[in-house]
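Priority: medium. Attachment 1 of 2:
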């Protein structure tokens, strides 16, 4: 069984501040892993589909998901669906088994009504500036609540995993001299260039 408390300290160091959303990501990710009976992804063994959007509260959630599942943007096995929700579908790419887990709406609403949000975050005070006596009880509450009070854990279902294609080919841009992955190159007259150099050349003509 994956124990989210074992990842809290590392998660907070990675994330950069204390808040309830990153721990919620730890809880959701752990519940999904335990439901599937899988270990943390060392390579591409797992795939996360995270329903977050951009520019809304509690996107810190994604750092908890990355920390505990090992699905990271660097490995390319976490994707944002831009739904503006906090659901996560975790997929075992070896078997095609998947599960969707979400925080309960009541738990999310309770966090949003807390002093952390109403007196600090909603007044645009950075989370790192919130007093410890305000944020730490909220973190403790998220980390210690029973799964059935905090999470909706779906049934395991089959998911068709798309084949992963990795490119090891590259070239040196004829204008800026930087390395570029082969499939991202653009022809420019007699040159082969990267996208930024191509776009700059188009603007200058």
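Attachment 2 of 2:
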């Amino acid at each position: 069984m994956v124990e989210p408390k074992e990842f809290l300290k590392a998660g907070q160091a990675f994330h950069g501040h204390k808040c309830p959303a990153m721990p919620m990501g730890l809880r959701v990710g752990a519940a999904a892993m335990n439901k599937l009976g899988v270990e943390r992804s060392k390579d591409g063994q797992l795939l996360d589909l995270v329903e977050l959007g951009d520019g809304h509260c509690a996107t810190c959630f994604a750092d908890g998901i990355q920390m505990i599942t090992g699905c990271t943007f660097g490995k390319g096995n976490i994707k944002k669906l831009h739904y503006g929700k906090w659901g996560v579908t975790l997929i075992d790419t070896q078997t095609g088994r998947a599960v969707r887990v979400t925080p309960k709406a009541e738990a999310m609403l309770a966090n949003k009504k807390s002093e952390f949000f109403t007196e600090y975050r909603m007044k645009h005070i950075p989370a790192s500036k919130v007093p410890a006596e305000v944020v730490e009880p909220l973190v403790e509450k998220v980390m210690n609540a029973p799964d059935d009070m905090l999470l909706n854990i779906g049934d395991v279902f089959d998911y068709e995993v798309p084949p992963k294609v990795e490119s090891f080919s590259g070239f040196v841009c004829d204008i800026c001299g930087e390395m570029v992955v082969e499939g991202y190159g653009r022809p420019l007259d007699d040159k082969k260039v990267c996208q930024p150099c191509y776009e700059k050349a188009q603007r200058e003509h």
